[in-house]
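// run 5 | inverse folding | seed 20
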């Protein structure tokens, strides 16, 4: 599961960097952080994991979400 979170993070950051216009950036944001986004789906799946794994994965997930949101904000300023 940890690897899946890191993979989604890397994919999101790569797409954010490659975005060529603001509308494309918004689409990427929805793709990952929207209601049915890739990252959102992973967050929902944490509840199905054993109790002893959830806290560490929750911390990782929060860090990744913050990183992705900050990347969106920084990239949005460039347009």
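// decoded
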């Amino acid at each position: 599961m940890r690897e899946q979170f890191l993979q989604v993070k890397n994919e999101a950051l790569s797409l954010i960097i490659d975005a060529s216009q603001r509308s494309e950036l918004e689409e990427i944001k929805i793709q990952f952080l929207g209601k049915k986004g890739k990252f959102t789906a992973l967050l929902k799946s944490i509840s199905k994991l054993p109790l002893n794994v959830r806290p560490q994965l929750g911390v990782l997930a929060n860090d990744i979400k913050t990183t992705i949101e900050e990347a969106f904000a920084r990239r949005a300023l460039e347009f």
